[in-house]
Amino acid sequence: MPDEYLVDQFRPNDAAGIAALYRSVYGDEYPVKSVYDPATIIRQAEAGEAYRAVARNGTGEVVGHFAMYRSSPPNPALYECGQMMMRQDSRLSDAAFRLFAFSMEVLPRIHNIRQIWGEAVCNHLLTQQMSLEYGSTETGIEVGLMPGEAYAKALSKVSTDTERISVLLLFRSTAPRAQTLYIPAAYDDALRFIYSTWNDTTSFLPSTAALPAGIKTRGNIQTFGGSGVARIQIEKLGDDFETCLARFFSEASAAGALVIQVIFRLTEPACGAAVTILRQRGFFLGGVLPRWFGDDGVLMQQVVKPPDFDKILLASKRARELKRIIRQDWEAVQN
Question: What pLDDT does 1 receive?
Fold first, then answer.
């Protein structure tokens, strides 16, 4: 069999091979079951929900995969990058590097994707290094986000650690803009640091407003039972914010969440009030999420198990400074 690989954008006749690749890498344990259905993979491409790149070997089998897809963000123009995998018998080739390069350089041009984001695991450095090479910016760290078992099979050649794994948030935009954000007093220095290398022209105003009277909080919660994560997204802050949080926290507890995230807009004048409420409940900074709502969001997080920050491996000086900031905030809210 020729030891040659073709990296290409997804074609409908790749769908069955992609489903087989998920099963080869993850068995039947991948939490999103639609990846095992070729018809769904084709439909997602036709609807613009997911765009994929593949590596095919010399006989045409799909041995590598990368996806850009709509996920948690309410902004449909913001695509998550991920689900990269290589079949075991192809991992020693250069196909993975070529697949990543194609996905980051060519795939966005083909489909006019201007805003992308991803989560690079922090139990090894390779994904972080490749993401930074192709223009992504570090904007936060999701502490203890994923159970290590989720990666034990897929990354067996890299790590067999089954402790919870943190991920580095990485964003990239090729459509810079001018924007004005409200900056919570507790995070003035942190947010200015994060935005210092982001390519938008950002102006800051102090967030001193109270939660708006007579306005109802709008939001939702997503629970990810397989990973023990609950993600609360607040579309609009209102004066019943604490009441809404109590209801969402109850749902998260019932779902067995070990990590709770709360995301809300930095364009809300009262975002500082929300930060204060959450910090009083043991939440600490996760980072910023450019374009998350169309507007930028801020991520706050709470973890049941005390995090081992020393196990969070980071490839860049900037990311290590982010870890220092986030660790300092976690320590500050423990009292």
Answer: 39
Give the number of other Cβ atoms within 10 Å of residue 124's Cβ: 17
Strands 229-236 and 259-265: parallel
pLDDT at residue 148 in the model = 82
Confidence of residue 163 (pLDDT cuts 50, 70, 90): confident
CATH numbers and ranges of domains, the chain: 5-173 (3.40.630.30), 178-332 (3.40.630)
Q: What is the dihedral of CA 35, 37, 40, 44, to 10 degrees?
A: 30
At 255-296, the pLDDT tens digits run: 999 999 999 999 999 999 999 999 999 999 999 999 999 999
pLDDT at 159 over 70: no
Rounded to whole angstroms, the Cα distance separating 139 from 154 reads 26
Assess contact for 6 and 56: CB atoms under 8 A.
yes
Give all strands (DSSP E) within the chain, no chain letters: 5-9, 50-57, 62-69, 78-86, 115-121, 137-146, 165-173, 178-183, 201-206, 218-224, 229-236, 259-265, 284-289, 297-303
Cα 205-211-214 angle, rounded to 5 deg: 130
Going by C-alpha positions, the residue among 326, 8, 2 that lies closest to residue 169 is: 326
In 3-state terms, the chain is what percent helix, strand and coil (to 5)? Answer: 35, 30, 35
